[in-house]
Design goal:
Elements lengths: L4 E7 L3 E8 L4 E8 L6 H16 L7 E8 L3 E2 L4 E2 L12 H8 L5 E5 H12 L8 E6 L3 E7 L2 E2 L30 H5 L1 H10 L12 H9 L3 H25 L3 E5 L7 H14 L9 E4 L6 H12 L13
Protein name: ROK family protein
Family: Belongs to the ROK (NagC/XylR) family.
InterPro entries: ATPase_NBD (IPR043129), ROK (IPR000600), ROK_cs (IPR049874)
């Protein structure tokens, strides 16, 4: 039997990836282009066109019934537009209508990249089997998404669960979003490195001053590096606990480059979570690393399309 497929797009500041995905989450065809992030909007759209062109000439394309897009944000699911911070040529860019035109009128579902990662982790990763979950990407920024009542909850604009911009320090540093003391301003990779450098940590002979280098120093016992990760863990714990208290999640899944730091992040995070998640209904909250890997954006965009109202009846629903 020939199962229906969905097309998936994962749009970021570095690359635009595309795939044809079946209802088990298997990637059957791929395409990719670098993102011309500093070019004008039509040039960026040209890269999307090129990725879709590769997919539409595949012999599998006639089985495609919907398109899912996970994009760097902000996105506006209700308007079908995207305004990625790291792609200045796209501001309120009508991505959904442009993709729908190229895809021959197929239903198109747009979500933020954190929501896409959440869909992937709930479908095939560490949040599988959990009806109420927060999934997070901790990397250059901090994003996230929610599973509530067993369903992906993107919210009206596709940004629900964006934990990176919960304020956890009322007198903290100004955040580029316009607020102050946001989780992202403390726990993102660049801000972990910034704090370590400000407190006296110095990179090694290779000059690497990234969060990954701070993580290596923390693993080796450098107290300043350890303290920077502990501060990040505390901010994450405060944001996770606030979310759990609000909507009663029972697991927080953390992916992204910073999560690859391992115990220097997760040990203080779990310790801090005990200090913040104190009410009886959140005390059993667990934290786990993400497990869907580098294809999370594509698999999650496909999952979002499979679960969307517009695609129901168009595609098989085994993934729901």
């Amino acid at each position: 039997m020939h199962m229906d497929l969905v097309a998936a797009l994962d749009i970021g500041g570095t690359k635009i990836a595309g795939a044809l995905v079946d209802d088990r989450g298997r990637i059957l065809a791929r395409a990719q282009q670098p993102t011309p992030a500093q070019e004008d909007g039509e040039t960026v759209m040209g890269a999307v066109d090129a990725v879709l062109a590769e997919l539409t000439v595949s012999e599998l394309w006639p089985r495609t019934r919907a398109v899912g897009i996970g994009s760097a944000g902000p996105v506006d699911r209700s308007a079908g537009t995207v305004s990625p911070v790291n792609v200045p040529g796209w501001r309120d860019f009508p991505l959904v209508s442009r993709v729908r035109e190229i895809a021959g009128g197929l239903p198109v579902e747009l979500v933020g990249d954190g929501v896409a990662m959440t869909a992937a982790e709930h479908w095939q990763g560490a949040a599988r089997g959990h009806d109420n979950a927060l999934c997070m990407v901790v990397s250059t920024g901090v994003g996230g998404g929610l599973i509530l009542g067993g369903q992906l909850h993107p919210g009206p604009t596709g940004n629900a669960g964006h934990i990176g911009h919960i304020s956890v320090d009322l007198d903290g540093d100004p955040c580029p979003c316009g607020a102050r003391g946001c989780v992202e301003r403390i726990a993102s990779g660049p801000n972990i490195a910034r704090r370590a450098l400000a407190d006296g940590w110095r990179p090694g002979a290779d000059g690497d001053a990234s969060a990954a280098a701070v993580a290596r120093a923390a693993h080796a016992g450098d107290p300043v590096a350890v303290a920077s990760f502990e501060r990040a863990a505390q901010a994450l714990a405060a944001g996770i606990a606030a979310t759990a208290t609000l909507v009663e999640i029972d697991i927080a899944v953390i992916g992204g480059g910073v999560a690859k730091s391992g115990d220097v992040l997760f040990v203080p995070l779990r310790r801090a979570l005990r200090d913040y998640a104190t009410l009886s209904f959140v005390q059993r909250l667990t934290v786990a690393p993400a497990s869907t890997g580098t294809d999370a954006g594509l698999v999650g965009a496909a999952a979002a399309a499979l679960r969307s109202d517009s695609a129901r009846g168009e595609v098989q629903r085994q993934a729901v």
